[in-house]
Every structure is written in structure tokens, then in C-alpha cells.
Amino acid sequence: MDTRILKYFLTVAQTGNITEAAKKLHITQPTLSRQLQKLEEDLGQILLDRTQKGHLGLTNAGIILARKSENLLQIWDDIADEVKNSGSDISGKIKIGLVESHCSIIVERVIQALQDLHPKLQFELYSAYSDDLKVALDMMQIDCAILLEPVESIKYSQKQLPIYEQWGLIVGKKHPWSKNKMINISELKEANLIIPKRSIINQDLEATLGIKLNSENIKGYVNLSSNISWLLETGEYATLGIDGVLAVRPNPNLVFIPLNIEKKSGHVLVWRKNNQPSAAMHAFFDMLEEKIKLI
């Protein structure tokens, strides 16, 4: 299928009007209508809901095609850009997925050093928790990802990174425990806890801490602790998290308190198996290793 036709379809989906879409695409309205009709015939599905007066909506099939087409066209643009910029100097774009941890700060230093050496190299950072990053990796939305252990990463090529995060409680300064130097594990059941969404993390925490994270004091789940800053600042909630969260997103109204049982998690760099890393990715891997040695 010609990617140009997909761009035509997406423009119609965005504008909801054939005439307006034709103007944006600099083609005639009859030409655009014929291309859309042929696309529907090729797929054997009606993509546009033409029953609404003055506006073209999307059928269920059209919604699916629009969503998938955006990813497909982005991948194609990335491929074309990488091929065009495959000369001797490293250029193009590298897409990196990151958990919010101390690794984020290191990656920023890596990017700065790489762009000093290769001014044409661009980057795109995607911040999320490990499960979302793996989905983005599988869908080819990112080139590689740095995940927080434990991770199920058998289907990826991977490299262990010697950067570790200390687990503890993140609370607001209004919280009665905010002045504590350490939190006893037995005290956790007394707090209004918000815990990580990832079940594999919770299983690992339960095994290490010797507690069950399923009691009535569990008030909610979160993928990124930065999403609940306001709740924590009230002083009524606490969240189990890593010390790197406040290093990446400093908040003067929040404090990190380590647990009385030392619990640390490492990081792992992953990328798709059977996918030959580009020159830009190799440069990123090498510079990352160099910066980590300086820590």
C-alpha cells in the first residue's frame, strides 16, 4: 500500500471534511474521493461514516486504521530519515525510553556528550514505567529502553547497568513521618499507601520485605510517582518508591525516607532482538558505558 494514501486518509480523519482535506493536501476533491474509495475497496471495509451531515466521522474500522497508520507512518519516516543520514558522520534520531530514576540524569549527560561529537544527531525521550516502555519497544516506537529491575526481558537483547536505586517511602513534609531518618517495615501498615502498579515489582518487594501489599491501607496504585505529587503533599498519603524519583523531579515539599531493610533495584538496557542497532545506537551504548564508569 502506498503510504501517500494513508496520509490522505489521516488528513480526512483529522479534518472531517473532504474539501478541507483536499486543500491541505494540494490535490483536487475528486482525486481525494477516488483514493479513499479505492482504499476502502482494497481493505474490504467502510472507513468513513458519511451519514453525519457536514462532517465525516470514522467507522470502527476507520478508527483502527487511523490509530495504526500513525504508528506505521512514523516508523516509515524514521526509516527514511535514518537511510538518508547514513553517511560517515552519525546523524538521524535515536529514541530512548526511560524510567524515572538516576539513570535519567545520566542519559541527559550522555546525550549532551553525543551531540557535542555529532551535532546532527537528534534524540527523543519517552518517559514511562517499565511495562509501558516494553510495549513502546515492541511497537517500534522507541529504539531502546532503560528499565528498572525486576523485569521480564528474555525476549530482548539486554545489558546490565550498575546503577542502583534505594527503596523507601516518599511523603510530603506535612506527613507525621517526614522527619524520620528511616521507616520500619512494620510501620507500613499504618500509612495510607499508594504502591507501584507493576505486579512484578510488588511481588519482589513482598519477598524482600516479608510483608503483603494487599491490606486495607493500600489506597491506590500508580505507574509514575510524579503523578501523585499533590496527594503526597497533603501529608495524608505515602508511596513506596525509589530515591531517584526526587532526583529527577525535585520537589521541595516531598522527602524520601529509606526503609530499615536495605532494598535496591538495578537497571537494564534493552533493545529488540534480531534488530541490528544503528550507528547512533552503538554510539549511545558506548557513551552510556563511559559515563557510568565516571560515577
UniProtKB/TrEMBL annotation:
The lineage of its organism: Bacteria, Bacillati, Bacillota, Bacilli, Lactobacillales. This is LysR family transcriptional regulator. Coiled coil: none annotated. GO terms for cellular component: cytosol. Residues 1-59 form the HTH lysR-type domain. Belongs to the LysR transcriptional regulatory family. It comes from the Bacteria. Gene3D superfamilies: 3.40.190.290, Winged helix-like DNA-binding domain superfamily/Winged helix DNA-binding domain. It comes from Lactobacillus mulieris. GO terms for molecular function: DNA binding; DNA-binding transcription factor activity.
